[in-house]
Amino acid sequence: MQDRVRRGAVLFAAVALWGAAGAARAADPPERLIGGSSSCPAPAAVRTEVELLIPRERLNARLRAVAGAGPPVEIVDLGAPFQVTAAGNVREYRDEARDCPYRARVAALFVALVLDPGAIQPASTPPPEAPVAPAPAPPLPAVVSTAPAAPETTTPERARLRLALGAAAEGGIGADARVGQAGLGLRIVSGAGRWALALGATALAPVDTTIGGIALHQWRIPADVSLRAQGATRLGEHRALEPYAELGVAVALLRESALDLATRDTRTSAELGVRAAAGLHLTGGSRIAPFLELHGELVPSPPAISALPRGVVGHTPLVWVGATAGAAWRLF
Amino acid sequence: MRLGHRTRALVLAAAALTLVAAGGCGPNLDVGSDVLWSATYETGSFSEWMAVPGRGAEAFPEAGDSIAVSTEHAHHGTYAAKLTIDTSVAGEQQNTLLSRVGDLPVEGYYSAWYYLPSAVTVGTYWVIFKFRLRTNADDESTTTEFYDLDLVNRAAGQMSLILYNHRTAVHEIPLDVPYPSVPVGSWFQIESFYRNAQDDTGRLTFWLDGQQIIDINGQAMAPTPWIEWEVCSIGEDLSASPAVLYIDDCALSQTRVGPTGAITR
Fold first, then answer.
1. Is residue B265 assigned to a domain?
2. What is the pLDDT of residue B134?
């Protein structure tokens, strides 16, 4: 928890200072006072970010003041962790996502705090918790830390177009029928705002069932067009819950085949219904987010099943309830 | 989604939901039939009987005995079979019948609708529904009578039913519903379930207009799988003469037809 707060503060301060520094971006000076073997972040990228915090002349002066045999600032990429050394102060951060621009900003903030803490004064914001103890002007005591790196603090952006695929189970309930089916559900959702449009279909495996005493082989493929209301709740630095609710029109392709009548026929029809659903996406740094959805469908006029000599023996289910669980891909 | 789109989508969704909610009857999925065979006479002939194994339509021995397709009364549609027997010759059996033999199932429901235009005084007997058997399935000469369902007089002007077994010492089998009332001047349905088992799983059940009137269960039926089913007017010493009986909507089914069942689409 402390790390999360610290990480948030780091980014907050970085963003604030970044804005305060304006557009004063400049190229590296010829002398490479910020070096190291790191490719993520590249020393040049760190230099660019530091110059947003400390004016170039002042930065060069501070770097020269602390320069020894090697570069006064050194960046080492250790995979998920990366190490920043500034004037003998060492800090290691962890960033599983390997977001290089982000790493560069974090490293720059640390460098700036070590070299010129007076340059960082986010006056209009609450004092953030510093990632390291502010160091006095050089010569500086060495600060070595292996604490976990500051995590990302942004909530993942909600997808504009999302494709969801999941395992589905449905149960149909009616006066004459009770049936359970399982299959695969596919859903595409367009809209990143509060409202989105959802189109979905589920391929349910055929099942044997009985309606009004007639044994049937039933195949049902429901599809729907729904309006989705969606929100988001942050769970932490990397994760967010995106709940949603849907209301729409459902159409199901229904195919019924008699199993044990003297003369067996197969009939296909469409069911028209109203569908409601509620679900959750658990989003993170990845494009893929797991989801769980509960849904129900009301078919006000379910098809009748008839056979000679009895005539109409019953109706297909009036209500369908089910659940789908799977993964959603953020396409855009 | 911008506000305009959203509003439009909401309106469309509301309209669609309203349409769904106001939807009428769902479609009817006719998935098949348990009716193995039927005869409605709507071809104006006995072709339904003649197209399957059996004796078809027969009337004998007198010239006054006749069987024809008629439009005078019909249970459904236009036509019914009209069976007329001349019982003016005392002590002589008169016969009109429609018969099925051969491809009958081990068990099934046999249904027919009858119309008595007027009450008849039954002198000796009047059979309207019967099963026959063979003691040797391959030997025609072993064909003999089995169960008859007979019309009888319950009281003057009132008709009823009895069950008659030719192969028991006491021929008349008491019905579970003694002397059920058979209507005159309106159609009534006789339906039977017959399982022709040679062991103690045999069963014979009769319904009159949907009411079960007898159930003989747990005993052997015919000694061989061969059976014959007849809807008929076979009588002796009936008055008035000729005696007329109409028959319509005959069916053989795997499930019970009942008074409300449909035998054709």
1. no
2. 97
Number of domains composing chain B:
1
Write the pLDDT tens digit of every residue in B29-38.
999 999 999 9
Q: How far apart are CA A107 and CA A114, in angstroms?
A: 11
CA distance B53 to chain A (A): 19
Inter-chain CB proximity A301 and B23 less than 8 Å = yes
Structure pTM? 0.68
Q: Which helix (H) or strand (E) holds B138?
A: none
Residue B200, domain member (yes or no) = yes
Q: How far apart are CA A198 and CA A185, in angstroms?
A: 13
Tens-digit pLDDT profile for residues A183-195: 999 999 999 889 9
**For position B165, which CATH number holds?**
2.60.120.200
Position B197 in a domain: yes
State which residue of chain A sits closest to B9, comparing Cα positions.
A227
Least confident of A76-80, A201-205, B177-181: A76-80
Q: Mind listing the domains of chain A with CATH numbers? A: 2-145 (no CATH), 161-330 (2.40.160.20)
Please report the ipTM that was assigned to this predicted complex: 0.85
Q: How close A38 gets to chain B, by Cα (Å)?
A: 43
Give the per-residue SS3 of B97-130: EEEEECCCCCEEEEEEEEECCCCCEEEEEEEEEE
**What phi and psi, each to the nearest 5 degrees, are found at residue A229?**
-100, 130
Q: Does B6 touch chain A (CB under 8 A)?
A: yes
Nearest to A308 among B1, B13, B33 (CB): B33
Q: Which of A212, A189, A220, A219 has its CA nearest to residue A297? A: A220
Contact A264 B31 (CB under 8 A): yes
Task: With beta carbons under 8 A apart, name residues in chain B contacting A305.
Answer: 29, 31
Nearest by CB to B33, from A266, A307, A315: name it.
A307
